[in-house]
Structure formats: C-alpha cells, structure tokens
Fold each of these.
Amino acid sequence: METTFQIIQGGMGVGVSNWALAKSVARCGQLGVISGTGIATVLARRLQTGDPEGHYQRAFHAFPYRQIAQRVWDRYFIADGIASGTAFKSIPMPGVGFSRALTELTVVASFVEVFLAKEGHGGVVGINLLEKIQTPTLASLFGAMLAGVDYVLMGAGIPRFIPGVLDALARGEPAELKIDVEDSQAAENFASEFSPAEFIELDSAAGLAPVPQLKRPKFFAIVSSATLALTLSRKSNGHVDGFIIETSIAGGHNAPPRGPLQLSQRGEPIYGPRDDADLQKIAAIGLPFYLAGGFATSSQLRWAIGQGAAGIQVGTAFAFCQESGIREDIKQQVLAMASSGNATVFTDPQASPTGFPFKVVGLPNTLSEAEIYSRRERKCDLGYLRKVYKRPDGTPGYRCAAEPALDYVAKGGADATPGRKCLCNALFATIGLGQVDQSGVEEPAIVTAGDDVVNISRYLQPGRTTYAAADVLRVILEGVIPAPPGVA
C-alpha cells in the first residue's frame, strides 16, 4: 500500500470525523480518517436515536460475528429514537479491566464506523486514537482491523507500543498494552489485554472458527518534535510507517510549550522557537511525514512538500464542512463569525483535565462562557479522560480533574480542579449526542478548532453558506496536482 495521498483529513474530536466525512475524503483520493475517541458511546447513542436510513443495520449485518452484533443491537437500538429531553442509556465506563459488554460494544462500534467509511469505493481510510485514552485502545484497534482499516494515527502521548500491538492483532494473537498508572512504581505492571480468540468465543455460533489473520494497517505517529519522531522510529516495538508533525496552532489538545509555562496577557501558553519541529532532522529519518496545524491552502501544501513532507494534515477546515458530525447550528454560527471576522480561538491551559492546553472556540451558550461553565454541575459519568492511579491496596482507581473537586482530592488528586471542564460530555453535546439531566436540560457543548478557523470562509463558493469536503480539497489542491476524481 503506497502513500500516494497528499492530504490527511484530521481525526477530530468525538464523532466530528465521522464515517460520512472520511468516506467523502477517501473517495476523492486522499486519506479519510474517522475518530476513534469515545467510539463506543457514539454508537450506543446513535442507535438510541434510530437508524432511518439503514446505514447501521447494514454495517451490523456485515459484522462477522452475528451473535455479538445482535446483542449490541438489542441492547441499544430504539427504532423510533428516544423522545426529546430523555436521557441516553448509560454504558460502562472504560477501565483497566473491560466488561464483556463494553468489549463487544467497542469492537462493534469501531468496525461499524470503519466499514461505513470504506463502503463503496477503493480509497484509503484511517482511524485516529489518543494515546492518553489507553484502556479502550486494543478493542478499538481490533474492530477497525476487522473492517480493513488502512491506517492508524495516534498522538497525545508517546505511542511506542502500538506498532507491536498491530503486529500481534494482525496475526490473531493476544495483545497487551501497558497502562500509565499514577502513584505506581516503575517495576509495577498494569496492562490492558485483548485476545482475538477469546473475543470470538463470545459468539457461540462461530464454533471452532479460526482466529482471523488481518491486514496490518500502517501506523503514523502524531508528534510535535524531531526528538520524539526519532525516539519512536528507533525504540517502538514494531515498525512506524510515518509521522504527522503537529504545530501549536492545531485544534484540540496541543503539546505544552517546552520549558517553564509562561502565559500571555490573554492567559494563553507562550510558544517559542524551541517548540518548532526541526524538519530537516525529521526528513533525515527517512519516513514519510505530513505537516499539521495551519496548513490548509495550496501555497502551504507546496511549502510543506518543499520541506520534504509528503503532504499535510487538515482538520479545522473539514470540521465545519457539510459531512462532519458537528451540529448544524454550531457550524452555521462559526461560519458566520468567520465570514464576518469575529471568530476567536483561545488556547486554554486549564480546560482539559489532562493538563494539556486545549483550543476552545468562543461561542455563545457553550462552555467557553464563564457563566455556562459555573452553572454546570460537575460530574464524571463517561470517564474517557480519567487518569488511572494506584490505590493504597494496590488496585487501580480512577480520578478526573473535572469531577467534583472533593471527590478528586479524596482520591489523592492535587487541588488543581478550578477551570477544568468535562470535555467528554461537552464534546458529545457538540455532535448532538449530549446527555440530559433529570429536568431535560442537555449538557453544554464545547467547540474546539485550530487557529485557522478564522479563515474557513475561504472554502465557501459564491452565494453559498455551507461547503463540502470536496470544496476543501478543491481549494487546497488547486494548482498543486491534478484534482483527483470527485474534487474538480
């Protein structure tokens, strides 16, 4: 499988980079990417809203283990959809030891999203996962590989054990992933485990079916420095196939600045020359690399290629196109603000419970407003960004800096909770799948985008108020290479 594409569509947020967006990009000859973040909850809640066009039913029928698929379908599908103002059925929170039900849901969810993204064309599709969300990773990867995913993209950490995981799963062998556990000793080993053979045994109808030998997807690590790229290329437990070099103006989580944290007058982290990746050193590694964060024009693509890059990754431009999973009202608000020159992005050093800086678009009635944030009752009921820590009895516990402050401190967390936001619940609200409380009030949204959100009106054709993924590709590829099918 050759790396022939010049544009990677970013795997954004929770459900923003959905199968429809990835399919549109892949059909145009570029790398379409689905987001694997919170994929189990995405599917569970989508099924509870119904399946009027039959897409999910079609994907479930394609899942190779029918009993498992049927259990997931029966557990969550509501034919006419839940009533407005009704709470979604909860699912188990991810932890070091997955329950059978959550394992099944995660594998099926990852399979379904990749299957639908790849259906009906010969393009390439990837899945994006976050290294800091470790416990669902193995099940997510297996489900994606069952559907024939072509690429795995992973950042927000040092994912040096993922190549070996992909090798094991491709051979049908058990895989193990070391889990970062706070307060543990170096010699202590906490790990997540997944066995393809044991998963298949959950479907008694499969009988003595052999464990499948799967295509090993290529692995691209998302990094911000030449040092990390070199470390991963030399010290990973398997082959790294390429890199995505992300700058500090990209959306979502950013790598913190090097050295002591300094804030601007606006309260944003200050990045300097030390935070710029050395592209010559990265090129010398000899693996293909793509530049990400503010590279969304034809001139920037040409510049990237001139630096030795194979192309660029583009996120923000795709986040607000017609096919993305963001709520339509939010898209229209952000597009209107960008068109009028009023769009703003704040790199918030406090928002994420992970401690990483997080880009937040200023938008009315979202968590970007202090009043909305202060009104929300703190709770942790999804758990994707929880950190694992070792309890006094040696067992793993879970804490999140965005949960109720007293709970967090009681679990041994430092008193660093002011300003922390529940990104899990807020990002689900951004795609129209927000949980509602007993009074029918939905969780407030949060919108993340890169600094380039101020320029997204460049993709609008005259007289239009929306644009498609193909419009993004048309603008970027204009004058760079002949437009692939579907872009002209």
Amino acid sequence: MFNEMLVEKGYVVLDIDYRGSAGYGRDWRTDVYDFLGGKDYDDHIDAIDFMVKNYAVNPAKVGAYGGSYGGFMAAMLATRAPDKIAAAALRPVMDWKNYFAANPGYTAQRLGFPDKNPEAYKRSSPITYADKLERPLLILHGMSDDNVHVQDSVQMIEKLIRLGKTKYFEAMLYPSENHGFVRPESWTDEYERIFAFFEKHLK
C-alpha cells in the first residue's frame, strides 16, 4: 500500500527481486554467499540505472527504504553509493557479527563463522562504510527487537556521531516494539516519517 501511495504522489517505484531471493533457482539464491550486500547491492544499482535511463528519473533524487534485510540493504546503499541514494532503513542489520550472535544458523549459512571469515563480515556490514555517508539516512528501530537487536542501530548512530556525520542522519527508536511492529500508531509513525523523509529529500 505504501508503494501505491508513493506512486499516487508522483514517485516512480521499482520493487526488485534481487539476488538471494527465492524462486529463481539455486545460483540466484546463493549468489550472495560470502558477501551480503555484494551482488544483491549490484542489482539495486543496476535497477537505479534502469530507472534513470528508461523512466526519466532524476539520478540526484533516488531513495530506498526497507525493513530487516531490506533495511540492511537500504543502509548498504546509503553508505556504499552515497552519490546515488537517500535511504530509510527500518530495523536494519548494521553489523553481521551482531546478527551471528543472535541467529548463528542464518548468518553462518551465508558468511561462515566470524572468527574464520572476518573479512566477509566486515565487507558485508554497513557500519564498515559509515565514513562514506554523504546523503540522508533515516534509521528506525524497535528497542524490544529480539531478531535484529537495537544495538545494531545504536552502534551505527554512535559511529556516525564520532565521525561527525550527524547532519546526514535521523533516527527514531520505538521502546515497546519488536521486529514486527504491532501498535497501529507505530506503523503509522514510521511510514509517516519515511514519507516526510522522501518529500524532504527527493522532491
């Protein structure tokens, strides 16, 4: 519904099935192994270039938003492609070492073990690229999240503060919300914030 609303408000919206998603065969699904935010990131960059070429999209006014892995991807786009993206990241993984501690099965299948493959964890984590942030980033996270713990967003916020990047990001924490928000007022607030963020930075 939010995508439909964005279209009604004059935005061009592209929702892509990037690598790592199911339904396109094993190679497509496993192509992100050893580098989350690698080839799937490339798919997003290709999608942006496609929109600019075919739909008269202004390359200086491109945004992304997503939650969970989508929030991670939004943060990766904001930090690794600061010339292309203003992004809203909901409950994002910012450091895969944190997520390994919370969900080792999911993470090890994709990146191995952090003590044996530290470079994969480093290159796959948005916090690694925090110093590159040059466009707006909106961070939204439930403080009771027991999947992607709020420490991910807090650590990213702290690093951005230490790097002198406070003018590039906004943040909102929801004390009573888990990974999937349940309060209607929280859902309304986060999407109102995303919409206002896009109106401010993409119009």
Amino acid sequence: METYHSNMTRRWVLSLQRQGRLERQGNMFPEVEVYRYVTEQTFDAYLYQLVEGKQKFISQIMTSKSPVRSAEDVDEVALSFAEVKMLATGDERFKEKMDLDIQVSKLKVLKQSYLSEHYDLEDRVLQHYPQTIRKFEERIAAYEKDAALAEQHKPQGEEKFCPMTLKGVTYQEKADAGEMLLAVCKENPLSNPVEIGSYRGFRVEVFYDTINAHYCLNLCGAGRYKVELGTDALGNLTRIENMLSKIAPNLEIEKRQKSEVMEQLSNAKAELLKPFAYEDELKEKTDRLNALNIELNLDEKDTPVLDSEPEQTEGQPERKNTDRER
C-alpha cells in the first residue's frame, strides 16, 4: 500500500519517456502509432493532473508569460491515505478539490505578484520619486541662475567675444585671450582644478585629465560645466561659447523631465489605491476548499503514501540488563 502511489507514478512517467524515444530525431520509422488508455474514476486523473502541472511549470519558464517571479518543480508530490481513498471511491468532491487546489494556487501567485509590485511602488512613492524630483529642482535652480548670468554678459562686437580675465589680466582681444589660455594651462599640469580667472561672469578653472591626456576647463556658476580643451586657441574659445549656449536648452530639458517624474509619481499613487482584482474570488474559492477539506477529513495531517525507508532511531538501542539474580 505504501508504494502504490510512487510505483504508479514511475510506470506512468516511463510510458511518456518511451513515447519521447519514438519521436526522437534519427528514428528509422517515418510513422508510429501511440495508444493511450485512460480509465474513468481511477488514479489516471490524478496522474494527468501532475503532468498538467509540470507542463504549465515548463511553459512559464520557456515563454515568460506567467506573472510569477519564481517557480518550484512539482516532482515531490505525496498523497495521503484519505486522498487515495477518495480517488478509489470516485468521490466527485475530490475532483472539485483538485480543481480548487489549482485555481487557488494560481490566484495566490497572482496576489503575490500584486503585492510585490505594490511594495515596489510604495518604495518609489516614498523614496525614489521624491529624491529624483529634489535633484531636478536643484539642477533647475542652478540652470536658471546661470542662464541669467550668461544673458547679462553677452558677447559684443564683430568677434562676439567678451573680455576674459586670466591671472589678473583682462584680455579684450579674442586671439590674445586664446593664446594666454593655452599658456596658463601648461603652467598647471595637475589633475586638481585650479582657478585661473573668469569669463562672462563665470569663474574659470583648469585641470589636466590624466585618463584622456588633455586639458579641461570648468565654468563655475551656480553649477559647474566641463569643457574639453584642444590645441587651437580660437577653437577653445568657441568650445566655451558652445557650452554656455547649452545652459538655456538644458534648463528646459530638466523642467520637462521633472514634469514626467511628477506624472509618474501621481500615477504610482493612483495604482497604490487599487486593490487586488481577484481578492473576492480568492476568498470564495479558499473558503470552499477549506470546507471540502473538512468534509473529506483532509484538514488533519495524515501519513503520506511514499516509498520510504524506516527511520533510524537516533543513538544506540537500549541495552538490556544482563545482570541476573542469583
């Protein structure tokens, strides 16, 4: 009796393995016929249910269509004596119980997925989105100040150039300022930024990029803007102007991205208010399953029908007293 469930399962699985060998690539027979007999109200229904569970498990992994985040194999299945009795008698309630087991398991998986997403949304609403919005606000404030500063010191004249101050000397000519900037860079071969002057209201720092092997310049206002320098004196001034011209467009980009994050925050808050869509169905079927377990006397623990070796008792067996009365 104890080996009935296990042996039946093995024989049934072996029949499926034989069918797999028939369909294997390289078989010399072009056609084969497979007959499978199923007896009504027998153990076959339960075994087919096991294979159905295995197929769904494999489909979840291979197609990624299931909402589950993890799955377990279903090899370790044990029937209690009460369950085997219900199968043997053909009790329709047991078939209903098996169906409810599957349905309740699916609904629990859906609820677990819902709860996982719910907790993730809570973290985003409480931490991620507020922190992201604060960072956008800080950058927007800096861009607004620097855009106003650049607007106050627009380039003048035919060359579209503002005077540049380097090492305490103000250069009115574009070419002179460019040549002096190259000379000052060579005097500061360190990787730490060193302040050397100002341009259009921004403090100017230079440093040597040891990784890319070239000089760089920082325009420092409310924010800091990095400019990579080359060997062309006038070209470096053009690069500086290009960087300053990007401040106003970047301000608009930051504002737009902040609005998108705020919209995401609003949507996340709305999602948090939505309950689990199948909560009533889960409760109804769980209550019915519990009622069936009580009716079928399956609510109490029963000994599973498995192939198992008798458990070894811990320690040595009690030694009999060999002393005899004389």
